[in-house]
Amino acid sequence: MFKKLTFSLLASASFLGCGLAHAQSVEAASPYAEPTVIYGQPAPRPVQRTAYAAQRPNSNLGGGFIEFLFSDGAHGQRYQQQPDAPSQYSYEPRPRMMSPMEQEQSVYRREEATDPARPAMDPKYLPQTVSYDGKEGPGTIVVDTGSKFLYLVQDGGKAMRYGIGVGRPGFTWQGVKTITAKKEWPSWTPPKEMLARRPDLPRYMEGGPENPLGARAMYLGSTLYRIHGSNEPWTIGTNVSSGCFRMRNEDVIDLYGRVNVGAKVVVI
Fold this sequence. Notes:
This protein is of the alpha+beta class. The protein has helices spanning 2-23, 62-69, 100-114, 192-197, 249-258, and strands spanning 26-27, 37-38, 41-42, 50-51, 128-131, 141-144, 149-154, 158-163, 166-167, 175-184, 216-220, 226-228, 239-241, 245-246, 264-267. The protein has two domains: 2-69, no CATH class; 121-267, L,D-transpeptidase catalytic domain-like (Beta Barrel).
């Protein structure tokens, strides 16, 4: 008899309690104004839950009555379901990881962009892909000392063009050479001819950002000439060297990654 009475009371309380609770429900505000995009696809909106209002203190029915049966009888204690908090996870696409070479290039781009004391380089010397209709095959480097451009011939009648600094008057030259060695952050030993003209120069310099050969060097044949980087990018497009071809560090890093030892170099 007691079991039947309890079951009947529970059923009635459940019906009345649901009706009362829903009649007094308070809809929780969604923490999301718009759907979050996950890699280009709209994410499903989070399920909204309802925070139920507290029962009237003098009510012995509904949710309060159920709590009375299965608790210590403290009518004043109520438990409300809380709305979902905003997710702590971000669904923004991950940025593409840069290669070590790209990271190194980006350092020099930031330095040039944030140092107003350095003279601006003419934008025409920035790297770009251009048409090429010469006779040299893909993989050949063509150095045009007159226009101060270096071309890396590619397939399909195209070439990568870079701005360079070339030799001062009396130090320019022409010919065909081969890349015989490649070095990252090369050390520098000024040749005796240069030391005779500039006895103030150091006899040896370790590789690094202050080294005049810059981040990369490609050695041309058995000569003292190189295609190399520079810690003075504002000199690109000028006659400044003793016969070497200098490039911005980020540009020589790019060229270095595209050519191999044995590549042909045509200087005109």
